[in-house]
Amino acid sequence: MKKELRGGYTTGACMAAGVKAALHYLIEGDRLNSLILTALDGTPLTIPVKAIEALGDPFVDGVRVEIIKESGDDPDITNGASVFTITRLKPDQTGVTFLAGEGIGHVTKPGLQVPVGEPAINLGPRRLVQTVVDDLLGPGAGVEVEVSIPAGTELAKRTLNPILGVVGGISVIGSTGVLRPMSEEGFKNSLVPQIDVAMAMGYDAIVFVPGKIGETQAVKHGINEQVIVQTSNFIGFMLEAAEQRGVKELLLFGHIGKLAKVAAGVFHTHNRVGDARLETMAAYAALHGLPPEGVKRVLESITTEDAMSVFADYHLEKVYDVIAQRASERAMRFVFGNIKIGTVLVTLKGEVLGMDENARVIGQKLGWDMNNA
Questions:
Q1: Which of 72, 194, 242, 265 could form a disulfide with 247 if both were Cys (CB 3.0 to 4.6 A apart)?
Q2: Is the separation of the CB atoms in 39 and 58 below 8 Å?
């Protein structure tokens, strides 16, 4: 019998748990040994609290909390690291302000989830903390949160942060707060039943999304959640599974950073396995008139979002449709033409960049409201 893989919680969940423990101390005087944090997807997470310390006047100087990161069976480099938060009440301000302490990086280049100059604390963790503050203090309450991961300075050397322009430490990440096991074989096999469920409900056309961005936008545009299948980075593996199960039509719906790789024939999209995002964008833009200096700018971009500004400067937005069509062609070739495939490219904010004709046809069959594209 296969071992069931244990899940864990993200550094973002650790930060939010620290804030929740601190606010409980300030409101009720409780030193919690553990607490339940509701992740953004509704999953309840039981998180132990290692230490709570009042700093001077806790209502002025704040409360310091230590949470130990638990990754379960996920091979995460931050597993076992201490995540410290100092939570300070700020009655003269509105909302939550985030500060980077020891081991937390700052964003120095455009194209990431947060602006240049901000602490590298992604949007998911920020929303998770905001939810905690709203629940305990009410909407609009002023709070300052300083997060530190002392091991982060060294750990960052084992990440892509230096390339992405995050300097001084690691990022606080996690789209929901839940850390799912990433043992590759087990994780891949856990994804396939999504296809079986959709087909059992009578669907022979489905939507593949590599991540939460694609899923959120597909639902926003009216596509039934029952046909949406998470692929993570294993697009090729999932395409083969869909072919084996007799799927007739399929829509790839996701961020250009993932699906531009498919246009280049890369079907395992983890950045350490295959990456041709910028090269693909540069090649197709050059084919449609991007001059050498523009190609150079695309290839020197840090992220696809950064490269998009070059497309805008040269009015080459039509190339997104071309990249989408190429992704569909490569994907159909991968399954020997046995599935009709369309592709929709979106930004981090969920804006539709481009699509091919197959995507329009399949999307309409699936109930996609094209007027909101």
A1: 242
A2: no
Contact of 362 with 249, CB cutoff 8 Å: yes
Helices 277-287 and 256-263: crossing angle in degrees, nearest 10, is 70
The reported pTM is: 0.63
Tokens of 273: 């396995």
CB-based contact 174:125 (threshold 8 Å): yes
Q: Residue 34 in 3-state DSSP? A: strand
Helices (H), the chain: 11-28, 58-61, 123-137, 152-155, 161-164, 184-191, 193-200, 212-220, 235-244, 256-263, 277-287, 292-299, 304-313, 319-334, 357-365
The two three-digit tokens of residue 357, written as one number: 């004709």
